[in-house]
Specification:
Shape: globular
Strand content: 5-15%
Number of strands: 5
Largest sheet: 3 strands, antiparallel
Number of helices: 14
Number of domains: 1
């Protein structure tokens, strides 16, 4: 999924469930930030303090994508949560849509989020991982032949004039860039073999796996199911953490489903889909009350703040101030989520991935 879902769709579902504007902005920013936290470094201050960043994504054309250990630390826990289904190790590592592991992750993280200062950031990370299961199912977050697709087998179904060429050109540009950098060895990682097709909410498409199995995908159906699941997740979170609520703004899933469906089925570039989400929110179609203005994504401000602390040596910057930085709280939440997912959640469901 892209920014239209991970920020705007997540914000909309949180607000529709009754989450306050400020809390929903933090949750949605953390959700989108999972795709932008690509720094692998320790931030050492001259007085001896250190901030450990938590990498939750890579650039598409990054050699780290080919590193098996890195795949386990980044792609499995944050983007391709294993479903735990099947009779062999490979099958259990494949991402499953709304799987029992995904449901267990949601339940566990809600229980943790209500008690920690970085609870909203943890809910944003949880929203990202959970939503991705509705787009990335059927693929594994590691290099494996199960991700391979028969060349020339992909079929796309869109109605908007010119959109088919736009999508295909995007995919072709991606592959040309990968080839020019000599990074084709990173594939088949995740859904790399099918480019960004799983992340386009309006797209109906099909492909043939290596070995001959034909797969048909209905992204609109999957994305609508994902939005419903997020709405339910945020409602459950508010039951445990009511101080983050604005209940008068809430709308039931039944009430907003037709609007969500219309947005999901909007054919166009990411910017067009974002406009559709923002307009529906401004018009009060997804949640009520005041504050229907959609707040800005805060990720760039988060990153700038950590750089500010990195380059400054002011001894008056107390540890307590650093600990309140949204980006620092994101790192805390990411560290907890990764550790729990790899060492507890997956293992408890018969998946040894780390």
């Amino acid at each position: 999924m892209k920014t239209d879902m991970h920020y705007y769709g997540t914000y909309a579902m949180a607000r529709a469930a009754g989450v306050s504007q400020r809390a929903a902005q933090t949750i949605a920013t953390a959700s989108e930030y999972v795709d932008e936290a690509i720094w692998d470094r320790e931030l050492f201050l001259e007085d001896g303090r250190c901030i450990l960043t938590e990498m939750t994504a890579h650039k598409m054309l990054d050699l780290k994508n080919a590193d098996a250990e890195d795949q386990r630390n980044v792609w499995l826990p944050f983007h391709f949560l294993p479903g735990g289904e099947g009779g062999n190790v490979t099958d259990r590592l494949i991402c499953g849509k709304d799987s029992r592991i995904a449901k267990a992750m949601v339940k566990q993280n809600i229980g943790l989020a209500k008690d920690v200062e970085y609870g909203l950031h943890l809910m944003g990370i949880t929203a990202h991982v959970y939503a991705d299961t509705f787009a990335h199912y059927g693929f594994m977050g590691a290099n494996h032949s199960c991700n391979a697709v028969e060349p020339g087998s992909i079929e796309l179904d869109v109605s908007a004039g010119g959109l088919l060429g736009y999508i295909q050109n995007k995919a072709e540009a991606l592959w040309n860039e990968a080839t020019s950098y000599g990074l084709s060895q990173m594939f088949p990682l995740g859904h790399g073999a099918v480019a960004t097709y799983p992340d386009r909410p309006y797209l109906r498409w099909a492909y043939t796996q290596k070995g001959g199995a034909r797969v048909e995908r209905e992204n609109p159906r999957d994305f609508i199911e994902g939005c419903k699941a997020l709405h339910e997740m945020f409602a459950s979170f508010l039951e445990r953490a009511p101080t983050h609520g604005a209940p008068k703004t809430a709308k039931s899933w039944k009430a907003i489903r037709p609007v969500v469906k219309r947005i999901i089925e909007t054919e166009g570039a990411k910017e067009e889909r974002i406009k559709a989400w923002k307009k529906a929110m401004r018009d009060g179609l997804l949640f009520g009350g005041k504050g229907k203005r959609v707040p800005e994504y805060q990720g760039r401000k988060w990153s700038a703040k950590i750089d500010d602390y990195y380059f400054r040596t002011d001894p008056n910057i107390k540890p307590g101030r650093i600990a309140t930085l949204p980006v620092y709280r994101f790192y805390q939440a990411a560290r907890l989520h990764r550790a729990h997912t790899l060492a507890d959640l997956l293992v408890g469901n018969g998946v040894i991935a780390a």
